[in-house]
Amino acid sequence: MDENIVWHNYAITKAQRSEHKSHKPAILWFTGFSGSGKSTVANALESALNQQGIHTYLLDGDNVRHGLCKDLGFSDEDRIENIRRVGETAKLMVDAGLLVLTAFISPFRAERDMVRNLFDDGEFIEVFLDTPLDVCESRDPKGLYKKARAGEIKHFTGIDSDYQIPHSPEIILDTSKNTLDQSVQELIAYLKQQQIIKG
């Protein structure tokens, strides 16, 4: 880093920003195969939290590639940079006192751990969508698996690019077994248990 760049300390802290809200700041990091239910569950959870007056923001993998990460492709290097940018953005939002939800395949364990290390203890909640690959492929909501099998898409997670399963995620969900409401209720119960939102 350039020696002329100096960190500026703010007069208002994260704790002070959080005092104006009825919850603690945190990030729920949804990870799993394409079609596992990350965006669907994250959207439903955000809706439920919004109804409770929780200040949230959802960062979705496809959406950030329309702006923040539109210059990136899907090579391993670009995937790593994509996650780095999202992690830093989420860190700013958590610092602002928000409950942030992110829905990204984020296939590499090292990059997910890199993001975890940006946050204070208890702030990073890894949510592993452990939906079997064959179920995800049968859903194929965007037709991406079909294209990947036909060789039209390269570096597609689960087909010709690796997905590294989390070692110890805070929450594991399987949307081939759980209903959407069950998944949302399990997440809300965890947030209450951890006193991130009020019980």
Task: Spell out the blueprint of helices and strands.
Elements: H1 14-18, E1 26-31, H2 38-51, E2 56-60, H3 61-64, H4 76-95, E3 99-103, H5 109-116, E4 124-129, H6 133-139, H7 144-149, E5 171-173, H8 180-193
Parallel strand pairs: 1-3, 1-4, 2-3, 4-5
Function: Catalyzes the synthesis of activated sulfate.
EC number: 2.7.1.25
Pfam family, one: APS_kinase
Labels describing this entry:
five-stranded parallel sheet, APS, 199 residues, adenylylsulfate kinase activity, 8 helices, nucleotide-binding, 5 strands, APS_kinase_dom, globular, EC 2.7.1.25
Total helices: the number is 8
Structural Rg: 17 Å
Global mean pLDDT: 92
State the separation between the terminal residues, measured CA to CA.
44 Å
Q: Count the E strands.
A: 5
Shape descriptor: globular
Strand content: 5-15%
Helix content: 25-40%
- Report low-confidence residues grouped into runs of 5 or more: none
Secondary-structure element order, N to C: HEHEHHEHEHHEH
Could you state the oligomeric state of the chains shown? single chain
- Strands of the largest sheet, in order across it? 2-3-1-4-5
Question: How would a crystallographer describe the biggest sheet?
Answer: 5 strands, parallel
Give the gist of this structure.
Its EC number is 2.7.1.25. With 199 residues, the chain is an alpha/beta fold.
Give a written overview of the molecule:
Helices cover 39% and strands 13% of the residues. The chain is built from eight helices and five strands. The protein has a five-stranded parallel sheet with strand order 2-3-1-4-5, with helices on both faces. Helix 2 (38-51) crosses helix 8 and helix 4 packs parallel to helix 5. The protein is globular and about 55 Å long.
